[in-house]
Amino acid sequence: MAICRRYALNDDDAADVLNNGFMKVFTHIEKYDPEKPFKAWLGKIITNTAIDHYRKSLKFSNHDELTDHEDIGGPAQVYEQMAYKDLLVLVQGLPPAYRTVFNLFAIDGYSHEEIAELLNISVGTSKSNLFKARQKLQERLSSAGGTKSGDVYFNNFSTQNEVPLQNKIAADGKR
């Protein structure tokens, strides 16, 4: 359900995604390889089901195509100040296109190329949506009075430079 909540707009949508995901698990259980962890296989199916749900609702939302922008930032300092539930509420408030790209990149560790392929968008659109998602999250954090707008960065979530957000969430025991 935690995966579904990250991608869904509300708890009802998350429950739909979860039900559809479990239906896929039960109908394709013969494809599971017992040599590999079940939790990882289940998580992948749930994530893909959430992406399918996003694609179905895509025709009802509009998204911007922006191919040229500079992605700059510093270390994420917001983690020590927020609980997982607080971050989840902020992420759920993002428009669907921004939320999906943010989750795939920042939490699940997908590259922009992989995201573009999964969502049938360009790499530039993926980068743009991530950039805009970070901006919106920063605006919401600064308007909440928790931090100054220059203190919080949602950039550099790559697994090469920092501990991925999913590891931070798991380490906090909030998942």
Automatic annotation (TrEMBL):
Annotated ranges, domain RNA polymerase sigma factor 70 region 4 type: 86-137
Any one biological process term the GO annotation gives: DNA-templated transcription initiation
Ranges for domain RNA polymerase sigma-70 region: 2-56
A Pfam entry, by short name: Sigma70_r4_2
InterPro entries, alphabetized: RNA_pol_sigma-70-like, RNA_pol_sigma-70_dom, RNA_pol_sigma70_r2, RNA_pol_sigma70_r4_t2, RNA_pol_sigma_r2, RNA_pol_sigma_r3/r4-like, WH-like_DNA-bd_sf
UniProt keyword list: DNA-binding, Sigma factor, Transcription, Transcription regulation
GO molecular function: DNA binding; sigma factor activity
Family as reported in the entry's similarity comment: Belongs to the sigma-70 factor family. ECF subfamily.
PANTHER family for the chain: RNA POLYMERASE ECF-TYPE SIGMA FACTO, RNA POLYMERASE SIGMA FACTOR HI_1459-RELATED
Record protein name field: RNA polymerase subunit sigma-24
UniProt lineage: Bacteria, Pseudomonadati, Bacteroidota, Sphingobacteriia, Sphingobacteriales
